[in-house]
Amino acid sequence: MTLFYNAEVEAAASTKPNVIIIFTDDQGSVDLNCYGAKDLITPHMDSIAKRGIRFTQFYAAAPVCSPSRAGLLTGRIPRRAGVPGNVSSKHGKEGMPAEQVTIAEMMRQAGYQTAHVGKWHLGYTPETMPNGQGFDTSFGHMGGCIDNYSHFFYWNGPNRHDLWENGKEIWRDGKFFPDLMVQQCQDYIKASRDKPFFLYWAINVPHYPLQGTDQWRKQYAHLLSPRNKYAAFVSTMDECIGAVLKTLDECQLRENTIVIFQSDHGHSQEERTFGGGGSAGPFRGAKFSLFEGGIRVPAMISWPGTIAEGEERHQLATGCDWLPTIAELTGATLPQHKLDGKSLKTIIDSKQAESPHADFYWQIGKSWAIREGNWKLLGNPRDTSQQGKLTKADQLFLVDLSKDLGEKHNLAAENLEKVKHLKEIYNRYQKSLSD
Q: Three-state SS for 404?
């Protein structure tokens, strides 16, 4: 089915920039040197900021894997994209509805080659796997996580192998999955010079299991557990990213390639991650939480020679914004349905431009949040970082982020009109989901 039409696609194809999205997994809010980490070694991720723009108030679409990915790929809040929570990691289970329009479908209609490498976690049927959602090629695992050497999903039974190439199960026994991803990305870049490409590299790192390489385990032996295990995996990932960026440079494609980087949400404090390892810095919350540490994430964009280099942007932006941003930067035609994301081009172009969002909405399970300006209202909040006790009086939790970045003090009782106003915005979003 043709979703869009652009009469100048073929003629303009040779002038269009390539696009690579690097989407990391469970990386903490401040776990890069350029975001303040002092005990990590992340030169290659940092190089994206040095050669581009770093966002300081960037939010994932959700605090868990599947809905955050749906928000990024569709430009829609996860519930509108049909992915309110994590989807099944079992073969034969559906995920994001096939009628949703992804960045890959948009880009393919604009004359781009499209590729997925890495984690998917948005459906495990032919219609909902990557090749059914706009990707010409796909290599990776379909569920939420795998052991990086056997490529099995071990976390609930029965144990099952999960490694796929273009919808067919493949076996790479004993091969380190991050290395396999790097090789796939490098080969794809080298082979894709005849027309522009869109590469969605969804790295399954530093998600558990924390399987950093021996070089980095030794480098971080001085750190306490679990930070040492997490740090080794982060730097293993950084090394992988560096290898792919080097290939872009060697192919003389860096100045004609938009590189976008984002973590899917905050760090994990689950038992499988030894109870932590990542860091949210000054923020409260972690993965699964709508406090800042669960949704405020590192994000950068680089396009050397075209956009600013080594600058920061402090405006509110979200993972849903990449689809319309990519459309505006490449000339692709937007899907003809409601989007929640807004193009970030104006703030990429100017430090002084206002955020395209007057407000934004998140929901996971019974927990929800609204942000408008510096005010944020959480409903039924959950604090997975366990930084303070939440009582029944905190079922509505109001903060002014300009004065309380750590979200320690609930101002709801003394700001009833502000609570009412933000609840009205929440209700507006709820109504829009049923329109």
A: coil
Please report, to the nearest 10 degrees, the dihedral formed by the alpha carbons of residues 234, 237, 243, 249 taken in order. Answer: -70
Contact present, 148 and 209 (Cβ < 8 Å): yes
Query: In the structure encoding, which two tokens stand for residue 185, read together?
Result: 């990305």
Checking DSSP bridges between strand 52-55 and strand 299-302, what pairing results, if any? antiparallel
User: Residue 149 and residue 393: Cα distance in Å, rounded?
Assistant: 47
Q: Note the helical H segments in 220-375.
A: 227-250, 292-295, 322-330, 345-349
| Residues 151 and 172: beta-carbon distance below 8 Å | yes
Is the Cβ–Cβ distance between 22 and 237 less than 8 Å?
no
pLDDT digits (tens, 9 = 90+) for 133-165: 999 999 999 999 999 999 999 988 899 999 999
Other C-beta atoms within 10 Å of 427: how many?
11
Find tokens 């004609």 and name the residue: 256
Contact 277, 215 (CB under 8 A): no
Phi, psi of 260 (to 5 degrees): -115, 135
54 forms beta bridges with: 300, 312
Q: Strand 168-169 relative to strand 197-202: parallel, antiparallel, unpaired?
A: unpaired
Q: How many CB atoms sit inside 10 A of residue 225's CB?
A: 12
Cβ neighbours of 117 (radius 10 Å): 24
Q: Is the pLDDT of residue 2 over 90?
A: no
Give the residue among 285, 296, 292 at the shortest CA–CA distance from 382: 285
* H-helix segments, 119-208: 177-191
Residue 323: partners with Cβ closer than 8 Å, 6 or more residues away:
72, 73, 74, 75, 103, 106, 334, 339, 341
What span, in angstroms and rounded, lies between the C-alpha atoms of 160 and 146? Answer: 9
Residues in the chain: 435
Question: pTM of the predicted model, to two decimals?
Answer: 0.96
Measured distance CA(303)–CA(64) in Å, rounded: 29
pLDDT number for residue 4: 46
Rg (CA), the chain: 20
